[in-house]
């Protein structure tokens, strides 16, 4: 009856609003939060797209906003857990609809083939995204969840999936499919589209192929290529007739997996240590339920001759909780929880359910007396066994001591000989021996990079064939063994999509090696300076944002603040998707103080080192901001910061950029490339602000990221002081 009222109310409201169907435009840069502006309404206020309360958190979806109770009709990422109140939903300036947590990576709300230019929440309940030609590139009507609205179609092959409950809109256990044969059929999820598994069908076969279910304005459902009106669908919902509640079989033993939610199935409300008692007597008996079967997957199928054989097979198997005996004499064993139960009087299938015994007499003796006698026997047995075990324990301790010592001494050798080098990223970083890494790198044969800290080799973990990069440090370390391990664990705790992940390390005598995830596209320097791989303008903007997010995490968001001290294109690596990731972060803390000069800019050459390094002033996170600014200018222009093969005016990039900025000739920086002038000017301004001589004038990395995302205005920067030209 509730379903009837809902559809009648929905149809009436829709009829009122349809006469003046309008749309409201949601522009790029618009955002929502769960606790303030939580939704984008349709023009009439009938529907809204945004956050709604789900349990103790929030979900994103479409709901009826024109009635007191928010009735949800569509849910995004419905099987993801609810989010907290500090997330935001953005139609980003580059055209993606994302859910953004305070930390970590954006989550796609919808999958788009191209960026959107705007969006609308229509009075029909349809949320749409448009491209720059005002063409619809995505709409919620094409991806129904558990509800079909007036004007919406369920086309051939599409399905509705039930919700787990009224308050939890995650995928439930039923699906309603519009089949090509004209049948609208309800099945359990994860079952074939065959009559055996159908719970309900519309009985509309023979109306032709490629049928479509349409929810019309009169509140009824129609098949578009027939005259069959499926009125019963609009009032019935998902039928529950015929389902079997295992609770009714034995109320004292079974309980719902999730209290209050029958769709989750039933399980035992206690845990038995064994399916048999100490003396071999069974703790269970089998209860038969005629004309009943469950559609859950069986883990074992036997051929038997009698029902007693099937009962016995389940009784003797501690993993078996139920057995189904079919007409073909096949006996199928199943575990709990059981779902999708069906009772059909015309079906001869018998279900045998294993239930606990409630016998009060054992072998003709009352249970209490029987238990006391058993306890006396056990005490005598325990005393004898204890004396024997006590004497044996001393022998075991001596043998164990020898074995533990031997295992400790030869463990690494055995691992190396057997090739059992395994990498577990969940507990990274793990400690390797030098011999293990020799095996991983095949004797350090394939060199893939060389830098100030040492040489990088490509390797493969034999156990899981994971490709890794192994860096052999070639400089003396200031820290001792304990300090080195501590620093490795600190660095290993940094997990961010824009940082190269440290997977392990080696501290073996004088050998110091680091094991990183392997970046298949090399460094940023490789792609910037190679004509065939130079990124497009949009890719360059994305790379700059990736680097900024990684530095922001090091400066403000990780457990221990890390100043990189060596931001440059060679230390920015590109993964298989050309996502930029920062490497070698935190290593400066492990090196001697005077060693920083070994990787700063050479005297007389423009580099990436902030002026305060050479002035022996205190170094803060602003040193990384300066280096980022130089890298940003290199990304914009796809060239080195210093190139003496060019004319004197253009050789030093930061001077050349500021000259073009003042002269209003920024087009010279990108040559003939078609680039949005406003975006180019914005990027150049950010770079100039970052390379200011005074650290106090440089913005924080959080401010830099906001500038790159276009959410804050950028004032005109002063000219940077050229430190290297003055020395």
Automatic annotation (TrEMBL):
Lineage of origin: Eukaryota, Viridiplantae, Streptophyta, Embryophyta, Tracheophyta
Enzyme Commission number: 2.7.11.1
SMART domains: B_lectin, S_TKc
Catalysed reactions, semicolon-separated: L-seryl-[protein] + ATP = O-phospho-L-seryl-[protein] + ADP + H(+); L-threonyl-[protein] + ATP = O-phospho-L-threonyl-[protein] + ADP + H(+)
Subcellular location: Membrane
Topology of this chain in the membrane: Single-pass type I membrane protein
InterPro entries listed in its UniProt record: Bulb-type_lectin_dom, Bulb-type_lectin_dom_sf, G-type_lectin_kinases/EP1-like, Kinase-like_dom_sf, Prot_kinase_dom, Protein_kinase_ATP_BS, Ser/Thr_kinase_AS, SRK-like_kinase
Membership in a protein family: Belongs to the protein kinase superfamily. Ser/Thr protein kinase family.
Annotated Bulb-type lectin domain residues: 25-142
Signal peptide as annotated in the record: 1-19
Entry-linked Pfam families: B_lectin (PF01453), Pkinase (PF00069)
Domain spans labelled Protein kinase: 442-724
Gene3D superfamilies registered for this protein in UniProt: Bulb-type lectin domain, Phosphorylase Kinase, domain 1, Transferase(Phosphotransferase) domain 1
Protein name in the entry: Receptor-like serine/threonine-protein kinase
